[in-house]
Design brief:
The complex is a heterodimer of chains A (111) and B (113). With 111 residues, chain A is mainly β. Chain A is 0% helix and 53% strand. Chain A has strands at residues 5-7, 10-13, 19-24, 31-38, 42-50, 53-56, 65-69, 75-79, 88-95, 101-102, 106-110. In chain A, the strands form two sheets. In chain A, strands 2, 4, 5, 6, 9, 10 and 11 form a seven-stranded mixed beta sheet that branches. Chain A has a four-stranded antiparallel beta sheet with strand order 1-3-8-7, with no helix packed on it. The radius of gyration of chain A is 13 Å and the shape is globular. In chain B, strands 2, 4, 5, 9, 10 and 11 form a six-stranded mixed beta sheet that branches. A five-stranded antiparallel beta sheet of chain B has the order 1-3-8-7-6, with no helix packed on it. Chain B is an all-beta fold and 113 residues long. Chain B has strands spanning 4-6, 11-14, 19-25, 33-38, 45-50, 54-58, 61-66, 71-76, 85-92, 101-103, 107-112. Classes of the chains: A mainly beta (111), B mainly beta (113). At the A-B interface, strand 4, strand 5 and strand 10 of A face strand 5 and strand 10 of B.
């Protein structure tokens, strides 16, 4: 596809469950970013990948959050033991040279 | 002080008018600046990037950057109802082309017919 693809588009889960969110970047984009957007908090950076390594993971809010990227392409963001405050839209972006392009996001709701 | 601040809005302008959106940032080493448009329920869409002091024009959009004043703005000429959206200012905090973006809270723009 031409753009950044994220799945699922919506996820509803119970508090305490683990969730996995997937991002497929634009082909050829070496840099990949995860952000979170919630009411009152705006758009917050979580983690940045260059290839398969993560030189900046300073935005991960707790050790319940982790992410990996394999083959320099698809990335997975995992949230363990979800809490209600994890409810947000999780956005993935990729870039080749500077400008970041976003996927449609995963809307995560924790019951 | 927030790292990136935008005029709080909401901003309402009549169709055909110029909409002016403003943003200030606190990190003096910031090098890259972006404006994103976000429609309700949609993801941010890049509309402008600017790296050097001065103006950059693209169609009806003009971005202005003043690094000495740590100020970046977006002008939308001949505003259309379809321009109604939230506009997000984003700054590259790391000073490189591949660093994370720090976003402002956004300004809601409404263009009324």
């Amino acid at each position: 596809g031409a753009g950044v693809s994220q799945s699922p588009s919506n996820k509803v889960t119970e508090k305490g469950k683990d969730v996995e969110l997937r991002c497929d970047p634009i082909s050829g984009h070496t840099a990949l970013y995860w952000y979170r957007q919630s009411l009152g908090q705006g758009l917050e950076f979580l983690i940045y990948f260059q290839g398969n390594s993560a030189p900046d993971k300073s935005g991960l809010p707790s050790d319940r959050f982790s992410a990996e990227r394999t083959g320099g392409s698809v990335s997975t963001l995992t949230i363990q033991r979800t809490q209600q405050e994890d409810s947000a839209v999780y956005l993935c972006a990729s870039s080749a040279a500077g400008s970041q392009h976003f996927g449609d996001g995963t809307r995560l709701s924790i019951l | 002080q927030k790292e990136v601040e935008q005029n709080s809005g909401p901003l309402s302008v009549p169709e055909g008018a110029i909409a002016s959106l403003n943003c200030t940032y606190s990190d003096r080493v910031s090098q890259s600046f972006f404006w994103y448009r976000q429609y309700s329920g949609k993801s941010p869409e890049l509309i402008m990037s600017i790296y050097s002091n001065g103006d950059k024009e693209d169609g009806r959009f003009t971005a202005q950057l003043n690094k000495a004043s740590q100020y970046v703005s977006l002008l939308i000429r001949d505003s259309q109802p379809s321009d109604s959206a939230t506009y997000l200012c984003a700054v590259n905090a790391g000073g490189t082309s591949y660093g994370k973006l720090t976003f402002g809270q956004g300004t809601i723009l409404t263009v009324h017919p």
